[in-house]
Amino acid sequence: MDMIWMSLLLLCVLLALLAGGLWVAFSLTTIGCVALYFFSSIPVGDSLSTAFYSASVSWDLAALPMFIWMGEVLFRSRLSEEMFRGISPWVGKVPGRLLHTNIIGCGIFAAISGSSAATAATIGKMSIPELSQRGYNKNQILGTLAGSATLGLLIPPSIILIVYGVATEQSIARLFVAGILPGLLLMSLFAGYVMIWSLLNPSGIPAGEAETFSFREKIRRSRPLIPVMLLIIGVIGSIYAGLASPTESAAIGVALAHLLSWKSGSMNRSTFSSGLMGTVRTSSMIAFILVSAHFLTTSMALPVFRENSPPGLTHWACRPTCCW
Asked: pLDDT tens digits for 137-177?
């Protein structure tokens, strides 16, 4: 019972540190240090350095900054404008009309960036002012954007799937394969909801704003999407075909993303520098959280009695790992 109460106390301290605004990585590391100091005979410094090193040397983790960099480059390109122009002709006659550009656009960009935040920012900076100007319901604009942006967590190359694969020692390629069908299913459900809502609330869709395009015109307007789709097929397809590992395909994706951004006229020294710094910040944050979580797991898995524990804690005996 004492072990349970102490575990709850550590949990409360962790929540207090997080609520106080301390960074997640520092909070996890602090709790791990406290647990080791009071309930383990292993020196805190040795365990900290060992855990940090073992969690950061994984080769699979090298794919993380690469995919983040690819998304950062395309986030600063003209991709969102081209995606909107390429998708809008195909959804003009579908119930819900241009609201579907949020769903389809987020699904496409999620397959490039792997980040929900980058997906929402990229698609939103184009779709929100455009759809608001055309008179669409603001709640539906924001709702479809917020819901569809979560596809970045699921559709490969998802950053979260990479972190999960590294932390649990699972195949990242298999996790990517497992994320395709649920991602497409979510896109279908979002689109179905928009269709049903638009049929039940026709006043939320601007009347008479739909444009009619011939099939040839739709293909012509969708040409800007071709390089993006080729990028997705090249990066993800090489993994599924067994031609490249996630890390190797990520490196190829970064090179193609820079080439695509340069071809669109968006690549310059400022764009390159800001994309690189954004990658460093995001990658460092995720890596720090990952190694801190590994250290916390290690500290909780070593409940060895500390010989020089303070008075009052001498009744803590060596217990199985499951007690933690």
From this structure: 888 888 888 888 888 888 887 888 888 887 777 888 888 88
Q: Average pLDDT of 129-136?
A: 82
CA dist 271 and 324 (Å) reads 47
**Residue 21 lies inside a defined structural domain of this protein:** yes
- Does any domain span residue 296? no
The count of domains in the chain is 2
Task: Please state whether the predicted TM-score (pTM) of the whole model is above 0.70.
Answer: no
Asked whether 33 and 76 are in contact (CB, 8 A), the reply is: no
List of residues 6+ apart from 49 with CB closer than 8 A = none
Give CA 236 to chain center in angstroms: 16
One-letter amino acid for residue 280 of the chain: V
Residue 48 lies in a domain: no
Same domain membership, residue 216 and residue 141: yes
Closest CA to 109 of 67, 138, 141: 67
Distance CA 182, CA 298 (A): 33
Domain with 306, as residue range(s), is: 2-42+302-323
Q: Which of these, 27, 30, 33, lies nearest to 45 by C-alpha position?
A: 33
Give the integer Cα–Cα distance in Å for 89 and 212: 8
Residue 218 lies in a domain: yes
